[in-house]
Amino acid sequence: MNTLYNKLRAFGRNIHGATAIEYALIAGIISLAVVGGATLIGQSANAGFVSVDEQVWSDD
Asked: What is the pTM of this model?
């Protein structure tokens, strides 16, 4: 039982796990920003292509 207590105590003092979690959270936030930016750029590009398509295929 004493060894379990010591292992749990050492686990609580270990900062490497916390650092890995922090880096994972930062990577997640950055990936969300990248996906959001790519979505906005994609929507803008799509609107531009639709505009060109309408001008090319209009019946004027």
From this structure: 0.59
Q: What is the DSSP string of the chain?
A: -HHHHHHHHHHHH--HHHHHHHHHHHHHHHHHHHHHHHHHHHHHHHHHHHHHHHHHS---
Q: What is the token pair recorded at 43?
A: 């929507």
Q: How far is CA 56 from CA 7, 13, 46, 50, 52, in A?
A: 71, 67, 15, 10, 6
> CA quadruple 4, 9, 12, 17: dihedral positive or negative?
negative
pLDDT tens digit sequence for 17-26: 778 889 999 9
